[in-house]
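In this supplementary section we document a worked example of the pipeline. Step one takes a protein sequence of length 68 as its only input; no multiple sequence alignment statistics are reported here. Step two produces a three-dimensional model, which step three serialises into structure tokens for compact storage. The input and output of this example are shown verbatim.
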Amino acid sequence: MIHYIVTKNAAADRTRYGITAVCEQTELDSIDDIAPTLEETAALAALLQENGVSAAHFRDIVEDYLAR
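The serialised model returned by step three reads:
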């Protein structure tokens, strides 16, 4: 089962949040710069998890979400 974990990336001038797709302690894919708020990123990670999105569609779903 794939789990979607929120990650925090702190740069010199800003903090951005991303999501990592993990299956059995193996990182499958990661997007480091999704949103500037933990709340928005966590909501997207929960949406991915609740809908059982496969790692093959992870990037497409995030792209569609951000384009809305």
